[in-house]
Amino acid sequence: MNMVAKKPVAMKKAFAAMTKAKTSTKTSKKASEHAFFSCKDIKSYYGDSYIVQGVSFEMKEGEILALLGRNGAGKTSTLRSIARADSPELRSGEVWLDGVALHDKPAHEAANLGVQLVQEDRHIIQGLTVKENLDLATISGAKGWDYERIYDLFPRLKERLNQEGTTLSGGEQQMLAIGRALSRDIKLLLLDEPYEGLAPVVRHDIERALIEVREAGITTILVEQNAVAALKLADHAIILDTGEVVFSGTAKEVLDNKKLRHDYLAI
Ligand SMILES: Nc1ncnc2c1ncn2[C@@H]1O[C@H](COP(=O)(O)OP(=O)(O)O)[C@@H](O)[C@H]1O
Ligand SMILES: [Mg+2]
Question: Is 15 contained in some domain?
Fold first, then answer.
């Protein structure tokens, strides 16, 4: 099942696709038939509890997908399955990123292949400064954005480099968590409720950064309770309910569908 509508993303991307099509050969046409990222019928369990119940979707490179649904719908479990965390356990289905299978790999290999999960609690390491938190992220594996580029994205981090990470405000911790993900060689950014607990003005700083991250070509899955805010940035949206996809389409389709919003998002 793949109901993802074909809506062009940013103009730049559409133009790039057009110019690519003009010069394409038979082999590049074949390559373009494959999604940049896909989940195929993934099923995950916590012990005997069957939680992610056959989730499938596809993404193009550079898209932002809003992954929505009520509390307990299975959003975090889906992100953790994609990042190949041990729990929940992915028992069947396939996860593909840029032509490489992730479903048969452990979390550290998925990370080395470009998957970075920013967890809801942000996982800032206690006792380490902002700079040391960034250093730790890049100790192993290929490097991504250099520090100056991360500080350009989040100037507040640069002002607080020697401050202990856990003493930052909620918004600054979120910036550090995203900065840390970008410091790795990243292809797919998974964000679990990045706006949680943030004042609107701080949320806007994060939103601006996510737009820059998209412009840099990074593909993002954004899980948010604040569905309206997530849909503002997203190209496509998936709605989960009890571990199953109940809607897949454009962000605009969700915003225009009152029943859908009422039934699954309470907005
Ligand atoms: N560690 C766990 N052990 C057992 N059940 C869990 C665990 N974490 C989450 N669940 C259950 O899985 C379901 C989906 O949870 P979750 O993925 O966290 O939902 P969401 O992120 O959409 O709020 C819920 O019913 C929740 O109780
Ligand atoms: Mg969650």
Answer: no
